[in-house]
């Protein structure tokens, strides 16, 4: 009885442990989530009132956010979406954030403290135009602050309290580009000024109370204008002439227009180059950038232009800021190597500086792109200034009192490509001090965990335990682990910056602004395209570091020159770069490596020539041996054509380059433009591992997967169906899907969906493809699956034949032989719209697959592939149930527990990346958009390892207790046996 009571107590103790420690200390152990906002376009400070000091910003990622000025943290933010571009922001009445978006079509008011939307107004117009927002503080109508908006050719006046439209004035019929709205102080009229037909200056005087047009003035300038108008006062503006060599001063007092033209060479001496008028709003002057210097031109009351100063190496100028009665200041930024100089000047006294400060920034941040300034009152009652600086790499800095208060790596909100790299192998020879320190931390951590296990830990101890687990040295080491969980995510951002992110805790290991992707005279519009594995040395054979190849171009055109950059993954150094190359239309990683394990790549230019990299004799010899086995395909969406290509011969005679090769077109599939349009394609990953080709069904039959890596999924729709969902009736809408062999161009399978429409999102893995689309007839989204099987191996089902070796499983396959294939398909309703799709990947391909679906709610949903099995039936047999086939339903289930991101959102979700770990049961998942999210998944549970929450201490206690119980039981048994013998 005593033993039973002891075991029962032990069971109850272990059960109570699991109930108390229900994953509370596991938060953040296997996943991390980082929030960003993107490159800042506009910023408005709110620091006048007591309480939290903040700055409200809008970004190129269409994010509106409120940031804490002390730490740079996000108070609140909203991501408006790809089609809702933010045009302007401002603060009204000290409590509303006003945003204008969608080309001046949508005006919203957000509550400043918490970001809740107060009201929303839709502004309609007759034609597209630039969008202007103005929230004057001294302009009211019936005790209500007025908001003026120009967009879509119409001028609107709205109430700042509820967003009601007070009046509307249509200016579209005048064919004018309105550029500024002006309210002369003390007046009940507003000016709307702009340019018509590039040579006509237009000025409208409008009654602010009812929108009545009081006066319209127009005057033509013989030389014409170029660029935007720069407003310097309530009745004066400056603009460049059409040649860009002269400045034109415009006065429009009470509608009377006067021009004064001055040659820039007469104002600024010893300066040559094209002039650019900066858009900064300066009181009484304009900033003109000529070459690398910035000249400040003052506009007098009479409209004359006078040069004030020319300052070299000025990178950015802020708008003017009122900081005391009658005084306005502005900031300018100069670069000197890694030093940045901030100068605050006032137009009243140019020789004196309100502030001069310098600070150092990391070289990988590049140049300053924008600066916004704000003033505050110091303890000695003097004026101080802070500067919000946007860098070339899209990062955001706050500079105050000569130091960087905080910085944000917001360039990570615009990742365009991702690859991974293994960490270095842990080396021998660790110092004794490090071992002693690690031993002490290990003992301390285990003592605290033991206290937690015995329920003796205080709340402070529990917090320490959680912190130790989150900051575990095992998790954040810079060496690879035996499970393959620790890796480097190499990400390329839109700014041309490459960063390495540790998968353990999401920290940035190194960052590098690539020199080849920075704007220069020879490359005006550089942009990155893809990252490729360049050199992946085997750690047992080579001591060299792995490296990646970053590919880009110098423009958007197909014939733009290419850029290549080679980066050391461990050091974060640019090994070499090649700029102004031939054009790059396609990059084909070849399955060959040289003696130092550099992977061969074939770069296809716009003319169809292939260029081999690396450019070494060894690479040429390897490539020549495989010349007849290199094929690729191209998809010409605009021309509605698929083409297959092959390497033909060396093109030394035409170009004189040993590493250049001609290509030939092998096949083409032309879709008639009047009946079909290509909208989506998908293919298998080159590095995908398939564990077995055979699939045993419930009736003991064997099916063989058709797992050719040359298969391409293509989706087309009828021309009427290319618009938005619902823009066509079901009878006129068709969706067609194809499976095409990219070596021969043979169409292996074609299927149609009548009454269906795109967009189509597809994922291809092993022998199956899953695609998502919209069913117009059912008014619901659908997901369909196609599985393709090889019938040429259908005879290999006899076990005796397999044992005797009389089978054709090892026979060579050729894409030129007509494959005997069959397909199985099924469609299901799905309740969510989809942004992106991916599939889990494991090291050996044994673990069952899961679909990772990026939903319209910016979350990642894991859906077991078994739900998309085309063999599902309404009443499966017992054998099919044992095989794991789920009964057929018309809809795919969505369980709350299936959300990989839990309650988190990956705002602006764009892509999901899956990477296999060394542990077969586990796959690594990285989702990126405006936010970043990383986690580990086990689609078939962690059948090959112990879970993270496994209690080794409890296991040890259980073993010790059982040993003691066995020993005590043995003693009691011996005593009882001895007593019976004495009887």
Automatic annotation (TrEMBL):
InterPro entries in the cross-refs: Beta-prop_EMC1_1st (IPR058545), EMC1 (IPR026895), EMC1_C (IPR011678), Quinoprotein_ADH-like_sf (IPR011047), WD40/YVTN_repeat-like_dom_sf (IPR015943)
Gene Ontology terms: cellular component: EMC complex
Membrane topology qualifier: Single-pass type I membrane protein
Start and end residues of each EMC1 first beta-propeller domain: 21-410
Cytoplasm listed as a keyword: no
Signal peptide segment: 1-21
Locations listed in the record: Endoplasmic reticulum membrane
Principal subcellular localisation of the protein: endoplasmic reticulum
Boundaries of every ER membrane protein complex subunit 1 C-terminal domain copy: 765-982
UniProt keyword annotation of GTP-binding present: no
Keywords tagged on the record: Endoplasmic reticulum, Glycoprotein, Membrane, Signal, Transmembrane, Transmembrane helix
Membrane-spanning residues: 950-973
Gene3D superfamilies on file: YVTN repeat-like/Quinoprotein amine dehydrogenase (2.130.10.10)
Family named by the database record: Belongs to the EMC1 family.
Description of how the protein assembles with itself and partners: Component of the ER membrane protein complex (EMC).
This protein's name: ER membrane protein complex subunit 1
Provenance organism: Nicotiana tabacum
